[in-house]
Specification:
Layout (H helix, E strand, L loop, with lengths): L2 H14 L1 H39 L3 E6 L3 E2 L2 E2 L8 E2 H10 L3 E16 L2 E10 L1 H6 L4 E4 L4 H5 L4 E4 L1 H8 L8 E4 L2 E9 L14 E5 H8 L9 E2 L1 E6 L5 H15 L10 E5 H44 L1 H9 L4 H38 L7 H27 L3 H6 L2
Parallel strand pairs: 6-11, 8-10
Antiparallel strand pairs: 1-13, 1-14, 2-3, 4-12, 5-6, 5-9, 5-13, 7-10, 8-11, 9-10
Helix pairs in contact: 1-11, 2-9, 2-11, 2-12, 3-8, 9-11, 9-12, 11-12
Length: 410
């Protein structure tokens, strides 16, 4: 019996018991669909974290003023002794692993262009901030040294601000008013998208730190030139932990922290946090796929059970086939093809079910999903393996029957 004849015989046998065949395939259908959907959800979560890491920049740390305790009440972050521009300069100069350290101040304000206005975030910083965040310009230029030193009324704007104020027009060299201060747009930032907290990073106007302090906020920070944060980028290939410890030790010295005293600042390794999230997403993907894979194993056990019942029911048929010349490997091939056919048909239906489930999760739950060809191939391939693995024993049992005993079976 050739493979084609064995396939036809297997299909006839399966179609003769349609309901039983469908019930047998249910485990495979659910398993394949679950594997595809869970891998899609896991991959979507991992890609979301990777996008956040890309949007944040690589090897990034954020230095913030710490909290203080007053009357036994902990006041939270950025309520203690402030950081200064000089602290940022010292970090960039004295910590060998650091590439740039950018001080910054931030507030919200209404910006006006003619009859159009928009509420956005105003960031006062240096060009080093954009380097630290790996945030290129879509057009225009960065701030010049003279503009930084002279608190020039210039700005670089994000894509959201450009769209809201100018629409399809070119914002370069246009003048907008920020808290009644006219500033000229000299550059437009490339699109960044949302950050880890879901905030639109492109909804921002960047001005020189001196411009922010002296013109927009009217001398905010005083003579000490306080800043609300310092963004630190560590050089590629350098040890982030060593850089973090170096920054802490330097700031303890500059802020005159006593041995054993509480640090009046916080250093957050943002890259490390997102890498931990990415690792968690990958582990969750594997866990979800493993749990879904259990359904495939259960489906395989169901196939074995039904095939054993089928062998018992068709004992006389097997005896007749052997009596007219069928060899053991022909019987083995017939029953093995039946098992694999059940698995593959169930796998094909499961692929459709998994695709629909993935679409539903992405559309109605609002989750990020990524349906990949590799997940489909993996699920279908595993279902075929399940058919071979769990179908082999019943097929082998049928092939090893003695014709005389099979014919006598009642």
């Amino acid at each position: 019996m050739n493979t084609l004849a064995a396939l036809r015989s297997a299909l006839r046998s399966l179609s003769a018991n349609k309901l039983r065949s469908v019930l047998t395939m249910l485990g495979i259908i659910i398993g394949v669909g679950a594997v595809i959907a869970m891998i899609a959800v896991g991959r979507g979560a991992t890609e979301r974290v990777q996008e956040q890491m890309k949007g944040l920049g690589s090897n990034i740390m954020l230095v913030l003023p710490g909290g203080v305790t007053a009357g036994g009440v902990r006041l939270g972050a950025q309520t203690g002794q402030g950081l200064t521009e000089e602290d940022a300069i010292a970090i960039a100069r004295e910590i060998p692993e650091v590439q740039v350290a950018a001080p910054s101040l931030r507030t919200g304000a209404q910006v006006v262009l003619g009859n159009t206005n928009w509420s956005t975030s105003i960031l006062g910083t240096t060009n080093d901030y954009l380097e630290a965040r790996e945030w290129p310009l879509a057009s225009g230029r960065l701030f010049e040294a003279a503009e930084m030193q002279g608190s020039a009324k210039v700005a670089v704007i994000g894509q959201t601000v450009a769209q809201q104020l100018f629409g399809d027009a070119d914002p370069l060299d246009q003048v907008i008013r920020v808290k009644k201060v006219p500033v000229t747009i000299v550059g437009i930032l490339a699109k960044k998208g949302q950050n880890a907290g879901g905030q639109d990073q492109d909804d921002v106007i960047v001005v020189p730190l001196g411009t922010y302090r002296n013109r927009i906020q009217g001398g905010a920070g005083g003579k000490l030139r306080r800043v609300s944060s310092i963004s630190v980028k560590v050089q590629e290939g350098q040890d982030m932990k060593a850089a973090e410890e170096g920054i802490k030790e330097l700031l303890r010295q500059r802020l005159k922290v006593q041995p054993g005293g509480e640090d009046p600042f916080t250093v957050r390794n943002l890259t490390e946090i997102l890498q931990a999230q990415e690792a968690s997403s990958r582990v969750m993907t594997l866990l979800l796929a493993a749990v879904a894979g259990i359904s495939l194993v259960i489906g395989g056990i169901g196939i074995m059970n039904i095939m054993l019942v089928s062998v018992t029911e068709r004992t006389r048929e097997i005896g007749l086939r052997m009596a007219v010349g069928a060899r053991g490997r022909d019987i083995l091939a017939q029953f093995l093809i039946e098992a694999v056919t059940l698995s593959l048909v169930g796998g094909a239906i499961g692929v459709v079910l998994g695709g629909v489930a993935t679409w539903a999760i992405g559309s109605f739950a609002g989750w990020r999903v990524d349906l990949s060809v590799s997940a489909i191939v993996l699920a279908v391939g595993f279902s075929a393996f399940v058919g071979v693995f769990f179908g082999f024993y019943p097929a082998r049992r049928a092939a090893r029957m003695l014709p005389i005993q099979a014919l006598r079976y009642e």
